[in-house]
Amino acid sequence: MASTSLKHPLDPLNAEELTQVSSLLKAKSPDKSLHFKIITIIEPPKAKLRPFLKAERNGTAGPPLPRRASALYYHRGTSDLFLAEVNIESNSVDKVEKLDPQFHGQNDIDELIELRDACLKDPKVLEQLAKYKLPEHLEVVCDTWPYGRDSEDNLPRYIQCYLFARSSHPGSNHYDNPLPISPVMDMITKEVIDIIRLPTGSDATLNHDAVFETHAPKEYHHDLQSQPTRTDLKPLIVHQPEGVSFTIDGYLIKWQKWRFRFGFTWREGMVLHDVTYDGRELFHRLSLSEMFVPYGDPRYPYSRKSVFDVGDIGAGVTANNLALGCDCLGVIKYFSFVISNSQGQPVQKPNAICMHEIDDGIGWKHTNSRTGAVSIIRSRVLVLQTIITVGNYEYVFMWHLDQAAGLHYRIQATGILSTAPIDKGATVPWGTNVNEGVMAPFHQHVFSLRIDPCIDGDKNSVIEEDSVAMPMDDSNPFGVGYVTKNRLISKSTPLDSAPNRVHKIINPSVLNKSSGKPVAYAIHSPMKQMLLAHPNSWHGKRARYAFHPFWVTAHRDTELYAAGDYTYQSLPDGKSDLEGWADRRDKTDDTDIVVWHSISLTHNPKPEDYPVMPCDTMVVSLKPSGFFDQNPALDVPQSTQKSNGSKLVEDTALTIAVGEKDADCCAPKSKL
Amino acid sequence: MASTSLKHPLDPLNAEELTQVSSLLKAKSPDKSLHFKIITIIEPPKAKLRPFLKAERNGTAGPPLPRRASALYYHRGTSDLFLAEVNIESNSVDKVEKLDPQFHGQNDIDELIELRDACLKDPKVLEQLAKYKLPEHLEVVCDTWPYGRDSEDNLPRYIQCYLFARSSHPGSNHYDNPLPISPVMDMITKEVIDIIRLPTGSDATLNHDAVFETHAPKEYHHDLQSQPTRTDLKPLIVHQPEGVSFTIDGYLIKWQKWRFRFGFTWREGMVLHDVTYDGRELFHRLSLSEMFVPYGDPRYPYSRKSVFDVGDIGAGVTANNLALGCDCLGVIKYFSFVISNSQGQPVQKPNAICMHEIDDGIGWKHTNSRTGAVSIIRSRVLVLQTIITVGNYEYVFMWHLDQAAGLHYRIQATGILSTAPIDKGATVPWGTNVNEGVMAPFHQHVFSLRIDPCIDGDKNSVIEEDSVAMPMDDSNPFGVGYVTKNRLISKSTPLDSAPNRVHKIINPSVLNKSSGKPVAYAIHSPMKQMLLAHPNSWHGKRARYAFHPFWVTAHRDTELYAAGDYTYQSLPDGKSDLEGWADRRDKTDDTDIVVWHSISLTHNPKPEDYPVMPCDTMVVSLKPSGFFDQNPALDVPQSTQKSNGSKLVEDTALTIAVGEKDADCCAPKSKL
Predict the structure, then answer these.
(1) Could you give the 3-state DSSP secondary structure of residue B145?
(2) pLDDT tens readout for residues B562-589
(3) What is the CATH number of the domain that holds A89?
(4) EC no. (chains A, B) (predicted)?
């Protein structure tokens, strides 16, 4: 088909292709109404893709690999779930597979709106609400939550509802009024099958006679603040008078020796493909594989409260429409995508990723104190940003690429705490009271960053490096010596952290000219507490990946999601998740491997996190560690006042003036 | 005296005062030549200072407390060291104390230049160098290092020299040519007392017949690069058309509800005093107390290689003259200071601290996905920066103050690796070869951040908080519950880290209205490996503070420096350093305490760190943790495109245009 003839095999599906796929599948089942969950590009198998990408980089590529798509859909109103594969080029359905009934599809917004509406029309729910005696100015809203799991039984696809009350303002904080009942719904019949009374005291005791008690609201929206807004913040503008330093060709980006492609999927959101630096291969694919948010309140039904934000909800479908000057400051490039709705129609995801440059302080500096010669560069960073809203929470996901060949995955958590009702005067040891009647339970966020490396080629290994004090003996008579010890990870396995332990991805066949050791990229990430839930709990069984910070597996095309393909009410089989793949004990030395990093944020709320939470930031860095023979940012031009156009604050009392005439501000100064 | 009548008791000494102090002391010893080490302000005792600062904040202060200064000096050419106290107001010497001969003064640049010159004129040194057969275009330079310590003996004040060769260019990297001899000098006589042959093989064997072997140089200076400079980096300018958001009154700064004073001392460099937020007291004094850099090469004389960069050298005296557009980008306020030289004369330290605002991404955000209402603020940060050059290394020290009442101490290490000669083909397990003949040994940097808190007043305590899984029992039948456990630190002691363990400074008498718990600031810092040297090694004995990441002591005015007042060739007595103070087991609950944080950077060099090292960054955050009832940045104005003036990259192919008309870019969007 003409529409695809020039498209890259990794480019996300466009609107036309999405419609083509859903139309084909609808035509194949004319007697059924299809409820689409996901329609997405099928990336070519790595065995074909890697040579294609290499040839493309060398300018010797043949015709693009064929574009194919997959679709996950229900027969509407049933639990019959299908996975289809479509060849877009030939406009044909290659395969349709009916999935095992234990597997459930993701949530989707069309479905959730129907469920929310049905919940709040249910007579039994209305009856309970009436007994709670809400004041008239408040309306009830329903937040849906994945049901989680609390038994071995294969339950129908359920959803758990938490109810809140809000005022009519569009920015009203409904989390400030959590209600003490929680309906459970069947997602097929859209019926309320149970209404659970939530515990609201200091223990699991239930109070069936609770009525609404008013309290001073805590609102996050600017219109609703009682205190005045600060007036002393002056504008700060980032200006690039000669334009940006990157080039864009479709989804192919080049900037400061970096070259990579964007991808964007319903489930993972932003994906980076085929990342090279100065023509050398680094990473085949970088993606957010999963994210699990378990809550630490031990009481039923909170014991089920947990969500796979990637697998149950999706990081692409929830991507924000980023706004110039608000989400992104400076000179901004936006990328927009399309995803499917439940009808299989294309829906715009405008400005789902933004890209821009920032100044990140000093890159490197040295002053020769004998001669006064100053050498200095500023550090310019390329920022790729996407923000998702998952119910109450916002997550900012960023890649920062620097000029010294470092990639930094930056996660920021913001938004609103998930809240629960609590009686006046009560406290619990697993949560923090953030307003009268409002408790924010402790919880964790465990992200899984999937790193598919190609450090100077496909055959890589992982080593674990520790710094170890030498024993105080003849070879270390003064007791000051220390060395590094390396462990080669020869079989697929989880790996643990230790203070200063560094995990490095190496290419054992390529030696660094300076150090004589295999070229390597190191993963720098602070040591964190991993999943606190018991390994035999359902949280523990369903999110095995969250117990260890690092995992190494042998690459397989189908293994993209750390908690498995189907996380909704998942019943793990011990084979279809990261632990299962690691348990194969595949060879992982000098071969095509994948490294998975579980990034854990233990979030015990504090009052300052409410009613909206200042960004909490975590950074994982992938940095060259013996990959280059010397500092790769050595060729960045010396910083000069001329190019940076900085200004002095006009207060000369304490300042030695450096005027604009000092354009060559870093020239040698007087000798010491 | 008129010159001081309006000065604040915490303001650094000015040139006139410095001259006054040295003149007074010179006049007192007319028959002696004085060699000044340090002349610095004596801060008033805390018992007097705190009420004064409080009254000043309330506008009820009486006359300033008297300004006093201390001076540390030798009788020139002797080892007689004196500490004097001078009352500037009354122009009188209050006290002169001759110090115990075991104590030595810091290095100073006047002295080091003399020693370097004398070393390179020494006939025995010249003889050894002649045997090494350096090519004619290279000149020898001498880097002095504190001698360290290797026995219980009270040696004279020694200095260790490491020699290098360099070309004539002012930016020539002499660390690329480390020479295999190391003279030791007596600092009084300025004589070379020993010339140590450095081990250059894979073990401690010495090669007395080594001659210079040429290799391809690695240079960091832009003039000396063989590869071309990048040409595709476009200017990025930070512009504040309406000026900055801070106000300056002498050394008193106000910005976004913050109020604090700058200090600057010869030894500590930048100091923050009397830090409040929104009128509430947070920190009485924040300073870099010490910094120890021990090397991990076990061989003599490298076993002595170590330096207290604060105590032996000084973080104020080595502060760089920061340059507009190079060290600092944007609209910049500089602060300049004076220090003394060895003659007691004032020496300018121009632009030793810079202050400016940056945009730091998103402050907080929430999208109400029902109504589409977006609430978002950008995060503006106030940056205070000072950069020091200590021989080969540069350190960037920054405080980042944010709008959510967080303070972030940011340390960046850059500059050049300390190098050692190594034979062709040899490798060592305690270092990395970074060029032919050039080995960079493993080492650590352990900083000590001294935190003198006043969280809502003087009487504070420290608690250690851990997140702990509940046992799987009747109160936690599903195995998902977890709680926090707190330990109150009631007596002075070191404290250790654990993953996610948080140390909080609390005021037990002030309860948070929301949580009901004592108001608190938390110290967030990743868990790191502490000092690797053996506790019985001299490194271990001299830098006890470096074995534990946190320490709590009862406040005493005289206890400012974690490794003691006199670190040069120090012989610890078990009482005059942080361990000694902690060992007193003073009450630290609900009283005036000091918290010390040892920040450890284990640096095992990689080829990318050479010939100049991209900044390696560490951040320690002091964040409100139940100090406020709600998000303290709630009143920051909503971000708008109008105030931020961002631009779109002019490529509309993939972009949904957001023009300047969308000034209110975060207004409610269409309903989901």
Answers:
(1) strand
(2) 999 999 999 999 999 999 999 999 999 9
(3) 3.10.450.40
(4) 1.4.3.-
Q: What is the pLDDT of residue A2?
A: 36
Q: Amino acid letter at B45?
A: P
Pair A88, A220 in one domain: no
| Nearest CA-CA partner of A13 in A250, A253, A249, A263 | A263
Residues of A in contact with B396 (CB under 8 A): 361-362, 365
If one compares B256 and A654, the residue with the highest pLDDT of the two is B256
Query: For the domain that residue A269 is a member of, what is the CATH number?
Result: 2.70.98.20
- B147 and B36 in a common domain: no
Cis omega (within 30 of 0) for bond into B441: no
The SS3 call for residue B465 is strand
Q: Which domain holds residue A455?
A: 249-295+306-417+442-624
| Interface pTM, i.e. ipTM | 0.95
CB A25 within 8 A of CB A71: yes
- For residues B218 and B293, state if they share a domain: no
Alpha carbon distance B502, A442 (integer Å): 15
Options A274, A297, A309, A609, the catalytic residue: A309
DSSP state of B6: T
Phi-psi region of B299 (alpha: psi -120 to 50; beta: other; left: phi over 0): beta
Beta strand A331-340 with B647-648 is parallel
Interchain contact, B607 vs A613, CB within 8 Å: no
Number of residues written out for chain A: 672
| Whether residue B505 is found in the same domain as residue B550 | yes
Pick A527's closest partner by Cβ from B170, B527, B606. Answer: B527
* A607 preceded by a cis bond (ω within 30 of 0): no
* Residue A236 to residue B477, Cβ atoms within 8 A: no
Q: What is the pLDDT of residues B34-53, one digit of tens each?
A: 999 999 999 999 999 999 99
* Contact flag A334-B367 (C-beta cutoff 8 Å): no
Tell me which DSSP letter residue A460 carries. B
Instruction: Give the pLDDT band of residue A650 (cuts 50, 70, 90).
Output: low
| Alpha-helix residue ranges (DSSP H) falling in B100-167 | 109-121, 123-132
* Residue range A412-432: mean pLDDT, rounded: 97
Q: Which of A624, A648, A663 is the endpoint of a domain?
A: A624
Q: End-to-end distance of chain B based on CA atoms, in angstroms?
A: 72
Give residue A1's Cα distance to chain centre.
34
In a domain, B629, yes or no: no
Nearest chain B Cα distance for residue A533, angstroms:
4
**Interface probe, candidates B394, B414, B480, chain A, greatest A C-beta count within 10 A:** B480
Q: Is B325 on the interface with A (CB under 8 A)?
A: yes
Query: Residues of A numbered 304-323 whose beta carbons fall under 8 angstroms of chain B's beta carbons: which are they?
Result: 304, 306, 320-321, 323
For chain A, how far is it from start to end, CA to CA, in angstroms? 72
Which candidate, B372, B303, B364, places its Cα nearest to that of B539?
B303
Please tell me whether residues A346 and A402 are part of one structural domain: yes
Same domain (yes/no): B604, B538: yes
For B167-204, the pLDDT digits (tens) are 999 999 999 999 999 999 999 999 999 999 999 999 99
Q: Which of A309, A324, A529, A541 should we substitute to test contact with B (largest number of B Cβ atoms within 10 Å)?
A: A324
Q: Identify all chain B residues contacting A475, using CB atoms and an 8 Å cutoff.
A: 203-204, 298
Structural domain contains residue A657:
no
- pLDDT over 80 (residue B672): no
Write the CA distances from A177 to A112, A113, B103, integer angstroms: 21, 21, 65
Do A92 and A164 lie in a common domain?
Answer: no
> Are the beta carbons of B484 and A615 separated by less than 8 Å?
no
- Measure the CA–CA gap between B244 and A264, rounded to whole angstroms: 39
A661 confidence band (pLDDT: 50, 70, 90): very low
A397-411, B390-404, B637-651, range with the lowest pLDDT: B637-651
Neighbours of A529 (CB within 10 A): 18
